[in-house]
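re: that chain from earlier
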Amino acid sequence: MQGRNPNLEDPGTIQVILRRLCRDGGLVRLRFGTWTGEFPVQAIDEENILLPLPEVLRGQWGLKRHSRLDATLVDRGRGYEASLELISWLRFKGDPSCQFGLPRVLRALDPHRLADFVPEHPLPCLYSDGASNVVTGQASAFGLEGLEAGPLDGRDPARGLRIGAFSSMELALPGGHLVLPATVAYLERRVAGFLFHEPPREVMGPYQAWILEAQRAQTRRDLESLGPAGEEASPRSIEASAGPRILVASDRDPMILVISEGAFLSGRLAESLGRKFGVAWLDHVQGHVQSRVAEMPGGGSGWGRIRIVLVHQRLRVGSGMDLVRQLATEEGCPLPILLVGSEEDADLKRNRAIASGAVDFLPVEPFNAVRILRGLGETLSMFPGG
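^ sequence. v structure.
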């Protein structure tokens, strides 16, 4: 384990991973300062990768040429982080895009994992638990010194296992069955990591040779499916990734969702109240808001980490009160909804907001951090469970 390098530094391998991400409609999560967002890959060539960051986001984030953004992505179940340099901005097929240089290194987010090779489909295996029971399982990732496996029936892999306990692993590989003694190195939500324990050389040799050949075969298949040139996202993957996405300006709990035209309000809230509240922003156009919440980083099920929804009275399409009615009735939002806007005719707006399904109307123009903080606190106190 000491000499193992889980990071990827080969330019060809990095490019294949990013091209595969582009082809399959995968997302890259970007972070710059307190801002985060997830974006599909529009295109990639030998030197650049294009991500769709509109001008309003570039301005809100304060991006300039040669800015460096932190990026994370997932490839075949393995997470990586990298640094992307902003080269320039342009329009790609009529859509705004930012051009980044390809990263030189993909650093493993979970370097402890025994996952040097991840096959397209898990392979059958048998292993013993702490009570010497034989478990029918499937191995989903393979390392040169161990592997990851879990029960075939999808049960918690921690049942009957403990870290450091001995186990016997039997693999059904294309070349035949191999039996390897192992210890449980780690337990995760879906798999357990089995580190081989003093394996016989006559067994370990064929196992490692199989991994290396399987890696080469997988790379050949990738190259054949991708072709020799660069990659552009397919219309299907672009459509799947279309529509506004929720961006996080301040990442903490409790989290406020601001729905507004432009990111000015969310930026002011994050700047003024970011030590007390998390702030997420959605430039809503149409469709259900809850489905966008499920897509946000760390969104989870239902309404995820959101505890209050602020809807601005002026939206890019439609009115704030129309969206409040949609949230309260059509989507059955269980969270407190506040309509926000200018303090002019505040009493009239409050009556209309409540009639539409909001809890209250909160003036945010002119911006008064003390008044807004008090209004949010009072609302949370009425809905302590979120």
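The chain is about 25% helix and 35% strand.
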